[in-house]
Model the fold of this input.
Amino acid sequence: MTVEVGKQAPDFTLPASNGEEVKLSDFKGKHVVLYFYPKDMTPGCTTEACDFRDHHKSFEELDAVILGVSPDPVDRHEKFIEKHDLPFLLLADEDHQVAEDYGVWKLKKNFGKEYYGIERSTFIIDKEGNLVKEWRKVKVQDHVDEALNYIKEHLS
Done:
């Protein structure tokens, strides 16, 4: 399965940091900011999560929900949320199936070692469940502002 801007976003069900199973389709009627990140508690991922936290109210005012997805288990997500006071759900994609469906599970290189992991990416899904914007290979700085401005300019 591949994702394509202008098409229906692939639905999924994942365990969430609130202890429930969450489906993407549960959020029909709201805009969804679906962001994939490599790992809880790492510097870039913490910066990104805290940026989303700091802009959470602005997204809410635009009728947008933020969902973070990583391969980390729910208990690690809970610690990450508690440590940084994150007001949105984090979803545990431990078998990386959703990451694969969205094309963000990639071969990466670090210090000469190759491994598979999440390519930091963000997807904006409209109220009807259609993928309307994607950012891949995201650089953390200013990215949350970019996502917020996209919703303001194109979806509100």
Q: What stands out?
A: The helical segments are 43-54, 56-61, 74-84, 97-101, 143-154. The domain at 13-150 is CATH 3.40.30.10 (Glutaredoxin).
